[in-house]
Amino acid sequence: MMSSRLVPCMIAAFTIALVAGGTCPAAPPAKQPAAKPISFIHDVAPIFKENCFACHDSRKRKGKLDMTTYASLRKGRGDDDPITPGHPEDSDLFERITAKGSRRMPPKDGGEPLSKTQIHIIQQWIRQGAKLDGAVQPTADLLRELRIRWEPPIPPTVYPYPVDINAVIFTPDGKKLVVGGYHELTVWDVAQGKLEKRVRMRAERAKAMVFLPDGKLIVAGSRPGQEGDVRIYDLNGSAPHVVGGIAYLDGVHDSKVMLKQLLDTDDEVLCLALSPDGKKLASGGCDRLVRVWDLSRGWVHARLDQTIENHADWVFGVAFSPDGKRLLTASRDKTAKVWDLAAKESVITFPEHQAGVFGVAISPDGKVGVSVGQDNQVRYWNTGGEGKQIRTSGGHGGEIFKVIWNAKPPLLVTCSADKTVRLWNPDNGSLIRALTGHTDQVYAIALSPDAKQVASGSWNGQVIVWNVADGKVVRSFNASPGLARQVTRGK
Fold first, then answer.
1. Model-level pTM?
2. Nearest to 124 by CA among 86, 84, 72, 82
3. What are the φ and ψ backbone dihedral angles of 341, each rounded to 5 degrees?
4. Are 292 and 272 spatial neighbours (Cβ–Cβ below 8 Å)?
5. How far apart are CA 463 and CA 210, in angstroms?
6. By the 8 A CB rule, do 68 and 56 touch?
7. Taking a C-beta distance cutoff of 8 angstroms, is the pair 86, 126 a contact?
8. SS3 118
9. Dihedral, CA atoms, 298, 234, 322, 331, nearest 10 degrees?
């Protein structure tokens, strides 16, 4: 209990304080929480990437400014650092992103102004000293640094929209189909059209797939405008997590599923080819480069053997000759080419399409190449001599995206924007039959290992499997998990 003698003293003190100051004594100010540290690589660099790199990279250097490394950013347009650490109001960079007139960055014709949140992040970063994270080197490529830190999303349990199918492939036993989804591969039972397995992957889309002789799957993946990769997967490499009868595997973090990464690049990888003996692998993509790996010691010891810069535009198709000594390529630069791998030189350029070339294949004897593309034509040409055209086959009513040449039985398969798959006699170029039933452009085709069935995938997620012998539908389903469960059985 408070002593009664203390009360008058406290009242007196309180009275003196009121007379002297007119108010109660002020409490000491509360300590303000420190501002959250801003990370350059996690908070600031992503803003620069989305709004600045398109004009201020190492190639364009608009205004002589390269922002794709911390060092080049701080160098400015010469040796004039656009940042004054600790003082955003004195920093040219901050003045530019907050300007209203012609000095604003990004400029009006280059994009929307930065949001208030983005501006605040950059302001705080400068105020805190404009520091670089300790784990990042000043000269490190920021695009790559951001890419390796990026975490892909979890594929939706139920797809809200159809997934566009860019790649399909039969498993080596011919009983399953592997289909590219959204950040995943889906595995379907052909006989029932039933989803059996979902394998999460980093790439947003699978653009091409090939099986190695030991059953491992190589996938060319892409995140459009962001990155591309080539990775090796074991679809049976780990104990799956089973939900509702569907097996789930993690091809992002589980090293028993995603076994090896062969390539990491700045843009999409669009095509793959495996040599007939399984000892060479080739890829092509948006960076115009064709890469060839030596797999002769197995995929574990895969070695990049050649990087070929022979096209002036994206490379859409690659195919090995039967002996593995030459490589055929197809490009948006309107040509198909033949590359001598031993001599490391281009030996033939086929220019007759006069439009983008999307797919290429070669005859079982290696003497004839076939290419398809934007001109709706299947063109046959000599892979020796001067590469003269032999014949053309018309009939598709739209761009032709893919072509497969099967040795036994002799068969050529194409797919097109005209919503059809076509079977051709490669010996004379005549049409065997047109396979109809798709309701959208057909981007992907695959032959079963015994060449008795052909599968195709379209822009709206539809997958159809046909019998080659009679053209009858074996199975039709939408490969967008949860979107459409109806499966159509061929009659």
1. 0.85
2. 86
3. -70, -35
4. no
5. 18
6. yes
7. yes
8. helix
9. -110
Structure tokens at 445: 């085709």
Q: How far apart are CA 365 and CA 434, in angstroms?
A: 26
- Helix boundaries (H) for 272-382: none
Contact indicator for 166, 99 with CB cutoff of 8 Å: no
pLDDT in tens, the chain (491 residues): 334 333 333 333 333 333 334 444 445 555 555 678 999 999 999 999 999 998 998 888 888 899 999 999 999 987 789 999 999 999 999 999 999 888 889 888 778 899 999 999 999 999 999 999 999 999 999 999 998 899 999 999 999 999 999 999 999 999 999 999 999 999 999 999 999 999 999 999 999 999 999 999 999 999 998 899 999 999 999 999 999 999 999 999 999 999 999 999 989 999 999 999 999 999 999 999 999 999 999 999 999 999 999 999 999 999 999 999 999 999 999 999 999 999 999 999 999 999 999 999 999 999 999 999 999 999 999 999 999 999 999 999 999 999 999 999 999 999 999 999 999 999 999 999 999 999 999 999 999 999 999 999 999 999 999 999 999 999 999 999 998 554 555 54
Who's near 217: CB < 8 A, 6+ residues apart? 169, 178, 185, 209, 210, 211, 232, 233, 234, 235
What is the residue whose two structure tokens read 């379907």?
188
Q: Which of 299, 298, 294 is nearest to 320 (CA)?
A: 294
Neighbours of 211 (CB within 10 A): 18
The type of residue at 32 is Q
Q: Which domains does the chain have, with CATH numbers?
A: 40-149 (no CATH), 168-489 (2.130.10.10)
Amino acid identity, residue 322? P
